[in-house]
Amino acid sequence: MTVSSEYQVLPGPEGYLPPAAASMGVLLPEPGEAIIEGKIVSLEAAMKKIAEKLLTAKTPVFFPGPSILWAWKEGVAEKAAAAKELAEAAGAQIIPMPDYRPKYPMINPAVEINPNHPNLTIWHNKIDVCIFIGVHCHFANMALKIIRGGTNCYTIALCGEMGHEDAMISLRDVKTQTIKDLTAVVKKLKAGGV
Predict the structure, then answer these.
(1) Helix, strand, coil % (nearest 5) of the chain?
(2) By C-alpha distance, which of 9, 16, 7 is closest to 150?
(3) Mean pLDDT for the chain?
(4) How far apart are CA 108 and CA 87, in angstroms?
(5) Predicted local confidence at residue 5, as pLDDT
(6) Is 36:29 a contact under the CB 8 Å cutoff?
(7) What's residue 110's pLDDT?
(8) pLDDT tens, 143-152?
(9) Positive or negative CA dihedral for 14, 141, 43, 50?
């Protein structure tokens, strides 16, 4: 297999087994950087692009995960409140992911996302832009790849760790202040008519 630095992480459907973006040459960003569609960019450029995507989407949805849904350590409640404010500023819905256990025999895709079938929730709700926030990396990596493989949803990952190369846009080291800064960018673009 030839690895190309020109590989773009774009909305799919890319097929049943889309390649992992890392295997196609997409690198994680360094601190202070971000990824847009497989390319390393500045944090500011990525925030502007996220704001544009959220404000021009028909059905933007936030998928908050357990890392911000449960007050398991100091500062989490503040980060969750900042994420909720960001979703409200962008006019986005929120579909929480309180845990990752598969729900059998069936899930309600209007209410939750299933670890094995995140594409069902995307299709059912006609989601064109989604944001993962507070989602543990092992689940985010899997779900982002499944979403890219089977839907045309534009994925954004606000990661508290190193970022996610399988998202169309990914920020790394996201703290409460990062979310507040992104909210300010969204509000500024919204006021400017985006």
Answers:
(1) 40, 15, 45
(2) 16
(3) 91
(4) 22
(5) 58
(6) no
(7) 82
(8) 999 999 989 9
(9) positive
